[in-house]
Amino acid sequence: MRMSNMLIATLREVPAEAEIASHQLMLRAGLIRKMSSGIYNHLPLGVKVLKNVEEIIREEMEAKGAQELLCSAIIPAELWQESGRWDAYGAEMFRVKDRGNRDYCLGPTHEEVFTSTVKNEIKSYKQLPINLYQIQTKYRDERRPRFGVMRSREFIMKDAYSFDKDQEGLDIAFNKMHDAYVNIFNRCGLDAKCVEADSGAIGGSNSAEFMVKSEVGEDDIVFCTACDYAANIEKAEAIAEKAEEEALQEMKKVETPNSRTIEEVSEFLNVDTKKTVKTLLYNVDGKTVAVLVRGDREVNEVKVANASNATGDIELASHEQVMEATNAQTGFAGPVGIKVDLLLVDEEVKNMHNIIVGANETGYHLTGVNYGRDFEGVVGDFRNVEEGEKCPKCGGKITIAKGTEVGHIFKLGTKYSESMNAKFIDENGKEQPFIMGCYGIGVTRTVASIIEQHHDENGIIWPLEVAPYKVSVIAVNSKDEEQMKIAEEIYNNLRSLGLDVLFDDRKERAGVKFKDAELMGIPMRVVVGKKITDGEVEFRLRTSSDNEIIKIDEVEGRIRTEFEKNGLKLR
Amino acid sequence: MRMSNMLIATLREVPAEAEIASHQLMLRAGLIRKMSSGIYNHLPLGVKVLKNVEEIIREEMEAKGAQELLCSAIIPAELWQESGRWDAYGAEMFRVKDRGNRDYCLGPTHEEVFTSTVKNEIKSYKQLPINLYQIQTKYRDERRPRFGVMRSREFIMKDAYSFDKDQEGLDIAFNKMHDAYVNIFNRCGLDAKCVEADSGAIGGSNSAEFMVKSEVGEDDIVFCTACDYAANIEKAEAIAEKAEEEALQEMKKVETPNSRTIEEVSEFLNVDTKKTVKTLLYNVDGKTVAVLVRGDREVNEVKVANASNATGDIELASHEQVMEATNAQTGFAGPVGIKVDLLLVDEEVKNMHNIIVGANETGYHLTGVNYGRDFEGVVGDFRNVEEGEKCPKCGGKITIAKGTEVGHIFKLGTKYSESMNAKFIDENGKEQPFIMGCYGIGVTRTVASIIEQHHDENGIIWPLEVAPYKVSVIAVNSKDEEQMKIAEEIYNNLRSLGLDVLFDDRKERAGVKFKDAELMGIPMRVVVGKKITDGEVEFRLRTSSDNEIIKIDEVEGRIRTEFEKNGLKLR
Fold first, then answer.
1. A113: nearest CB among B41, B43, B92
2. Closest residue of A to B79, CA-based?
3. Fewer Cβ in 10 A, N or C end of chain A?
4. Measured distance CA(A203)–CA(A205) in Å, rounded
5. At the topology level of CATH, where does B252-380 sit?
6. Chains A, B: CB contacts under 8 A, how many?
7. What is the ipTM of this complex?
8. What is the enclosing helix (H) or strand (E) of A131?
9. Residues of B in contact with A75 (CB under 8 A)
């Protein structure tokens, strides 16, 4: 591409709207522009990167035998009613009516559509296994779109769905997708870690997320510093501390006026927060669920939701619900005599002695309370793991980092095939529901994540395979005919190798050209300057600050070397 | 692709829902499935063809210097309010509200978005010309979706928009796009004819459509049998017949009870319909417009709309409007004494003598009426051309055929840049509106049109470049190990050439395999059967019914020959 003909949309200033590096650089390098809140248009440079990432995904998916479909974004409500998700999906789903007043949504995901397609097309176990995918636009009306395309309302996703006749088949499909994702993110130059994730009611190791460490990530990822254990904090198993033995005290009611929070109560009674237990009340599908964790711990709402079989998100109980369960103002709830539908007790709490809890009476707490003697409940793991705790796998030390999810692989089992009555005939002539898996990659988000991991103060530093252009050819002085002629020859030669090359033929100062090439993150640059009188040009990698002086006829070879280093072929 | 692993969705029966060949074959060969009225999912075979067509479009667009963007499908209402089209677009536009109750549409086209983008990015004439395109999903809530993807509500379109500093630049851009379209449709194997089309208020030869002749086409295309004249009937110029000289009669009112239509009046008065004139009344943006054409002619509503500066579609006047204009029941309107906002007279009517028209009185007509003496109006071309008339260009004979529009190129001028205040600074430092063109190709419709032109009773016959797979390798007896081994070797060898090949390794009868390959339209097939004992296989083109017996080691060469014949390269 000759830059004199190109829509160059680089910006020198950092746009005020952008908080994070990838968002700033996607705007500054001219990859995207905002259309509306959480809705972006891709400019030419952005489209080229998207297409490169899509091509990598396609190749790796097809290498695992997946076949590409393309489904409509508009989906009739009936399909979602069949699966029961039309009402459950809530405000995040864009809904639309046609001229006949029929209900549709803009697909936020396509489980229903793929299940229905396979239900119609596949009748026999002989046609299984099958894995179908698409690279397609998704719609989610996020409450809080942010960070550019990192969390947007219209975005490109690769979603795949596997259909098997049995659990073994699903396991194979799941592992294949795991391997494909490892390859995809490697080729994208992304350091993405596969971590255990929550799989809701299905349980087991059925869900894994590919996470990119990022300071602006919205998830907390738990890593072991000693072994390879890694899990989303939603899922990460907490090991209950054993409390030291001590003599059981008598339970006593003490006045704690105006002390509602753990901190206030600990201070008022002059005890460590670790001796207190907090009782949180949740509204789960209309029922009241109480959760007890040690005073200094955090409740893990996903674990609570799973333990209480919630159909959707759970929320803290209303003031009225608290009053009803405890006969007291908020801040004085405790397990003794509480009226709830379910009482969940974190294992750590069960191990503690002589704990301090709310008295279910405004202005009062109980001391010397003990599990078993004074109250009982469903014991389990209901809290978040914390930095420095023990790894559930090896006992090593846990560390926690922020992460962004770029991929998700999930064993669905028969959730959709059962609800949508999608069945095949097995070897014995019996109807069986398809055993399904689903596998997503956020394509637009992957691009942003690559930039998060590959940039410096001057701009993007594209990994070679996803780079929109691989080489930038720059004539230092565009008025120098000889420089322009040689630059053009190099450009034409590189293009003839099937390479995406930029030729900066603009009548701009060399400094402007260098700055744009760096901002756009072009991996290699060839600078044609005064040294051509000696038959030499400058070659520089975007990752380096060193100029290599090479002969003009060495340019192709030098570029070939970089391709080989990256495991890529040039024509 | 090994067919044993493939989602094969071929159907033996012709689906009842499909009326036309392409729709039937896209269903039968397993390219598409219906999701909802006018909304389709593409199955793997369909996706492959789409991608091939898209790739051709991309290459030809980029060869003309166009750059690819990717804009959101969701577009905020404000942009459409700026251009004035939010209200004008009517029921065909899908509208959607987000959780904040803000208005958006699902883009039926993207003039507003591209104009706004260029307005923000391009400031100077130095950055012009520029041509930006996208291949993207469009939404139009058609009143009557039909013929499968031929007229659907969600479809893929290539839309491009050119921005120039002056009219000469636009002319160049328009011609480049014309040439690109010729190349695109040629490579798709489509016989698409470029015809003059209506360009609304802008006028001139500013709009051209690429039309595919088709019995099920929704447009009438006017061709000259002698020269290269071709136009959409909406646009095609009608040459007014000169009437023979005759003495002017006196105007007389005659009773014509129950005679309302031209046929009834002609019969009642025993005259040729060519002596009568029909007066049709239209509602144009609330105003009443009367149009006079010879009794046997058809009014051209596009010409009427243009002449009356209609902002949108026009419709026949209501009974109340007719009563108000004529003081009579419908069927008795005429030009003498009619009360309308505009009276349009087809040139042919002006030339006629002693015509018969409605008397604007229920039950009466006038005879001996003459233009100039008895009534006057705006004279022009307001009728449809008819088969056998004279070509406006060379005087040759006109013929009319049905056609389907697959592409449209259009000089917009400053329509959008003016209304959206999109301006650049010209050579003299003055602000000027961009001079725009827009250029569309219906991608999904192009695929259907290719099938309309390339099929037989056994299935699709893909032109080589768009074919989802180029060759099908079939072992006659899948239980014969030697046949399977050689078939597999041929398959692997052809794949190593970078070729999309199908290997029918299914345990099916040979007849089933042949039928599927023909239905899917695979251009070449290699049949491995008993002749392998002589080192021979059968080669057959989908376009032929002859089997060529060739040596196994001649297969590659034979296929190379076909590629060369089609101007294509093989690795």
1. B41
2. A35
3. C
4. 7
5. YbaK protein (3.90.960)
6. 141
7. 0.91
8. strand A130-139
9. 35-36
Given phi > 0 = left and psi -120 to 50 = alpha, else beta, which region is B378?
Answer: beta
**CATH 3.90.960.10 domain locations along chain B:** 252-380
Q: How many CA atoms lie less than 13 Å away from A99 in the CB half-sphere?
A: 15
Q: Write the pLDDT tens digit of every residue in B430-460.
A: 999 999 999 999 999 999 999 999 999 999 9
For residues A204-224, average pLDDT: 88
Which homologous superfamily is A11-73+107-236+400-451 in? Bira Bifunctional Protein; Domain 2 (3.30.930.10)
- The answer to whether B95 contacts A94, with C-beta atoms less than 8 Å apart, is no
Nearest C-alpha in A relative to B64: A5
DSSP-derived secondary structure letter, A190 = -
In chain A, residues under CATH classification 3.30.930.10 are: 11-73+107-236+400-451
Best mutation target among A67, A105, A156 (most B Cβ atoms within 10 Å) is A67
Of residues B41, B99, B117, nearest to A69 (C-beta) = B41
Which residues lie closer than 8 Å to B265 by C-beta, 6 or more apart?
B256, B259, B276, B356, B365
Q: Do A42 and B153 touch (CB under 8 A)?
A: no
Beta-ladder partners of B220: B402
- Reference A365, options A248, A245, A272, A266; nearest CA is A266
Minimum-distance CB partner of B141 among A91, A98, A153: A98
List pLDDT tens digits, range B262-309: 999 999 999 999 999 999 999 999 999 999 999 999 999 999 999 999
B30, B43 Cβ separation under 8 angstroms? yes
Architecture per CATH, domain B43-236+400-451, reads as 2-Layer Sandwich (3.30)
Q: Which amino acid is at A300?
A: N
Is there a contact between B72 and A120 if contact means CB atoms under 8 Å apart? no
In this structure, whether the domain defined by A469-565 belongs to CATH 3.40.50.800 is answered with yes
CB contact under 8 A, A104 and B73: no
Q: Name which of A69, A91, A104 is nearest B99 (Cβ-Cβ).
A: A91
- Per-residue b or e along A42-67, where b marks 16 or more CB atoms closer than 10 Å to that residue's CB: bbbbbbbbbbbbbebbbebbeebbbb
Region of poorest pLDDT, from A214-218, A344-348, B27-31: A214-218
